[in-house]
Amino acid sequence: MRVLESDNMAFEVSPLMESSFERMLVENFSFANIAILVDENTHNYCLDYLLTSFNSLSKAEVILLPAGEENKIIEVCIQVWEALAEYQFEKKDLLINLGGGLVSDLGGFIASTYKRGISYINIPTSLLAMVDAGIGGKTGIDLGNYKNLIGTIFFPVYTYVDNHFLRTLPDKELKNGYAEMLKHALISEVELWHILVKIDSLNQLINTEAIKQSIVIKQTIVSKDPLENGPRKLLNFGHTIGHGIEGYLLNKNPVSHGHAVALGMIGESYLSYKLNFLSNTEFNQIKDQLLKIYELPKMPTSAINEIMKIIKQDKKNKLNKINFTLLEAIGKASIDNFLEEEMVEESLNYLFNLK
Ligand SMILES: NC(=O)c1ccc[n+]([C@@H]2O[C@H](COP(=O)([O-])OP(=O)(O)OC[C@H]3O[C@@H](n4cnc5c(N)ncnc54)[C@H](O)[C@@H]3O)[C@@H](O)[C@H]2O)c1
Description:
Strand order of the largest sheet: 1-8-5-4-2-3
Structural class: alpha/beta
Distance between the termini: 59 Å
Oligomer: single chain
Bound molecules: nicotinamide-adenine-dinucleotide
């Protein structure tokens, strides 16, 4: 019995039928039980294609999750662990996460903990999961308002990215993934930024090389620092403030992860500018581009205190200072900038008073 060794660079971007998916299943999981984790939407839009196209999946069990971030919680995990136990899953068996970031984060967490780890494959079906959540091995669930507070780093044995799944993805979900693509460009590739800001309609993204470029940026950063001791923190740009906003709104008027990160990127670009890392011109370009696409939700004045409470719980903080990845220019970022609370509050005030 074994868990297949994962290679954190193992991914393919191609139609699934032309990929190594079936061969990988035959070579490694012929004698394994296989379960496919889906949510309600990927059950309806994506599962049939998988079940009808690949013989190796003819006996796979299907585990259905309720859709929505509010279900990325321990109670749902318990039901999935119970299902795997009922199917008598062993160490050699395989979980396939077919879905967006909810399914890959929660499914990866399940795989990393069930019997101390079983193999899993990610087949991301949302743009956000393709360019971000489905790769890089971070798994996790939320605890109350705290996003991804409980989790592990446990790599999938493989990630298969097939952009044909995006055809059924609602426009607002394209917008959600686009934010993480902009983030990848902002932290490390000015050319990608220029390509992305020229796109007229987000549907154009579906067939562009930009998806692959975005994945390569993430994979390259993760491969240098899989456990996030250094350069991987670059990927947190926009997320410290973003997670605060996302967590605060979770049970009120939820915004998507990408939307929250986009707002976080405005706040954190403001901090970068105030600290004289980023020029005023580039700060305005970033702010204007993001505000063109992502609206500012209405926030009561009490929101700032509540968001600050969440930000102060951020996993990256040290000695009561809040740790930020900040921009030095479009395409260049720096990690481990520890800031006082007052500055962060100032950036939230700035953000929520923008028109
Ligand atoms: N692990 C990481 O490194 C990482 C990185 C970024 C984000 N995340 C996490 O990812 C989550 C957000 O991911 P998400 O935006 O994909 O959310 P999601 O999984 O909730 O998907 C968004 C919506 O799209 C639907 N959907 C997915 N694929 C579809 C398809 N092909 N057709 C029709 N509908 C489809 C889903 O059912 C859902 O309603 C958050 O929990 C966030 O914390 C994790």
